[in-house]
Amino acid sequence: MEVSYPQAGGFGNLTSDLGIKIFPNPSSGIYQIDANALNNKSYLLQVYDLQGRVLLERNSESPATEFDLRPFDGKLFLYRIVTEAGRVQSGRLVKE
Question: With 0-12 CB in 10 A as exposed, 13-18 as middle and 19+ as buried, what is 6?
Answer without folding.
Answer: exposed
